[in-house]
Fold each of these.
Amino acid sequence: MTITQTVEIPANRRLNIDVPPEVPTGPVVITFTPALSPGKTFEKSEERDIELFKLHSERLNREALDVLSYQNLDV
């Protein structure tokens, strides 16, 4: 069973999720995928990946630099 719903992520990045009674209890996987601009589609998953990388490149670069900074520690 797959349920898809587009929601707006608020500035505080908190969501409250009410699960329909048709969904069985137990473990589930929740996946967040940024929505595309209206009217935009991708023919290949590579195009989608490139667009997502462009969208998040600044944050990814900051995280990578943070991880690299820990590798220079003297233990």
Amino acid sequence: MKEIVCLVPLSWDFVPARFFDSWTRMTDYAHGKYRLQMVAMRSPYLDSLRDILAERAMMGEPDYILWLDADQWYPGETPEKLIKHIDNGKLIVGGVTPHRGTGQPLIYDWTKPGDENKRVFQYRSKNNYLTGVHKVGGMGMGGVMVHPKVFRKLLTPPHFQMSYAPGEGRTSGEDVVFYKKCSEAGIDIWCDYDLLYSHVVVSQMDVRWHKDE
């Protein structure tokens, strides 16, 4: 039976009830199909924490690595759907995570290849509703499955780093820098637009994919 190591970086000493509910749904759904193992660690330094978690996962030689964020909710079939994409040759694939405030999907493309400070976000509207699996520049890091060879062969550590943009007064998150490194290494990022997540503070029914004009 194949094994999925689920990595959960924590900023708190607890996980919200909705995340625990989604984890229970995923473990129930996985019964008899694949093994789910959770590795959770807490630190205020999210970039180095993600590197530590990735290293810990690779020690066990898993079949798949699944990043989960504790402030999100995931459908029970999430691992199975992502496994199918990985088995079809994709190295990194996730679902659609909404912004916790606006509900708009956290999916973006680079305005020029490899520039983490030049991004354009994609939005789904009534006239442009994407379905299926599409290549993207990057997305949120929660609910993202990574083939182990990304960490074993294709990228050199550190994989996650905060990046400060001189003159712009802002910092790019460790997930953005990770996707930038993947882009520079020729690793494509994919998103399954039919796999919908939610933030704990944004219920799935309340998500608005496009702001009405």
Amino acid sequence: MSSFAEKLAAARAQRPSKDVQVVLDGEITAERDKLLERLEAVREAGSSPDARLGKKTEQAELVERIESLTEAARDSIVTLRFTRLPGSEWAELSSHYPVRTDANGKPSVPLDLQYGYNFDAVCEEAARRSGVRIEDDVVVEMVVETPTKKKPNPLNEWDELFDAISGSDMARIRDAIYSLNEYEPALRVQALVKGFGAAAGSSRN
């Protein structure tokens, strides 16, 4: 059985990560977003007569067009890698960015009520803290300069990136951050608790 120190070391060394690809071509991004929206609508509508007749469906055509756009934008694709933050750091972020409220102090964003904190701000800050760029399988740190009197507006590649990417790409970054830091850990705990309960019940029998 592993010692407590060994378990801690393993947990620190095995923090999971996720890669997210974003596109830095405005025209291609806009067209891609339109196609993605249409694809989502088609999927929600279910199968079409063409599918039942064995013809190429609108969904298949949309997927092909999205893939073609992605290929055309290959030189504009940037791969970002995000790693799960330490639990204490994620908790600190969640406390630092409370639920958004209106002028009367009432919660104004339903998404925040669902999660209990400013979802957009927490995920964006977590992305800045845990993210890197991947170029030819090499990790490259994003440039974030400190303001000085001589340079009051320093280079911050995260600011520039978030300003350049589409809403759908930003949403995928937020989804990856939330999945890494909340959703997947919660699922793992549920699975462990369920497994422990099953094992305990079996041992009693």
Amino acid sequence: MVLFQVDIQKQQGTEYWTNRYIIDETDLTAAATKADLIPGFEQLFHTTNVTLESYRVRPLAPGGDMYIIVPLGANGLYAGGDLSSQLPLFNCVRVDLAVTFGRPSRKYYRSGLTEAMVVGSSLDATYRTVVIDAMDDMRAALAPSFVDVDNQAIVNSQVYVPVQMRQLRRGSRRRTEPII
């Protein structure tokens, strides 16, 4: 088995960003088949003004130029209230993906949070349920291939209650072109 990196590229307005997943499969084609499932689960908790642009599957090991890029152009499906009350994109949803031993993998999703999805400084309970259900369903659909960088199976997922803040990128340069 080989570890593959799956990058799901998203866009809102002129901003682009990615989320990375690790898949343990026999070859690039098998990894791409598993990767094809991920955007559908992510759509469930991204708002309708966030576009899942494309995804790329490539070996995790450095070197080599074998990869697959699949265009998507699919919008999120979550109707999270009035999109004119959207919080800045540095406001994120944190999901911890637990493994048997060691530190959990951590994902920060710029899901297009709106004021209706947040109560005080915490994520609304209804929205947290949508996120955790989507992550649990994704974990089940990808099992046993869904792993962390140490090739440990993801065994559980937990949504962190407070809204998290993550800068869009390091440095002062704004990314206005696609990453993939």
